[in-house]
């Protein structure tokens, strides 16, 4: 009994796996030579494996002649960018034409990565001039990838739409900044380490100022013109003794002394002559 159940169980699991993976994107795109490069990039980035796990999906494929610089991306960046070309729903041309609004927002596979920011996980689709234009929903992104044709579709599992050129989603390389981010505010220093270095005047410590101040107090002032003049210096007359003490008696050997002696002798002789 158990031997007969085992083959049935394996058959059931095989059918379940087949229904879970309803298509192989690599095999499908290999039938369209115009999209061979895009197909190779899906396999190189590893995104093809994740696409094949989906049951309902729409792929925006870029032809070989318009692939641009997608071939020069690293595997990580390439996977992020290509995941924005995969819409998580089924859309063919009739369904696009049935849109009620001229512009709609579609969710792409990058939204499920948990790393999408600023609407990177969404695409804008706009009806324009009888066709449709695709582009990233990020503010300021270019939206000029025009729908060219329906490559293939399998309602309602997979649809491949050909677009004119690659779509550019800003910031998938990690350089995206907020569109309206305010400039950083200057904050006051919270610690001595963050304070600005003191200037030359502020760098002098109080001890140095105190040490210099006595020198400034005892320093002789610059001489003025009055101080340089002779009138401000003591004159010999200020140091001279009184008038009575200015002329001491002449010494005995001086000419004035000799004159007084001669005069005295003359007086004596005159007195003697008068006496006779």
UniProtKB/TrEMBL annotation:
GO annotations of cellular component type: plasma membrane; side of membrane
Compositional bias ranges of the Acidic residues kind: 199-219
Bilayer-spanning residue ranges: none
Keywords: Cell membrane, Glycoprotein, GPI-anchor, Lipoprotein, Membrane, Proteoglycan, Signal
Signal peptide (UniProt feature, chain positions): 1-22
Compartments (UniProt record): Cell membrane
Biased composition annotated in UniProt, kind: Low complexity: 220-246
Stated role: May be a cell surface adhesion protein.
Similarity comment: Belongs to the fasciclin-like AGP family.
Protein name: Fasciclin-like arabinogalactan protein 3
Lineage of source species: Eukaryota, Viridiplantae, Streptophyta, Embryophyta, Tracheophyta
Gene label: FLA3_1
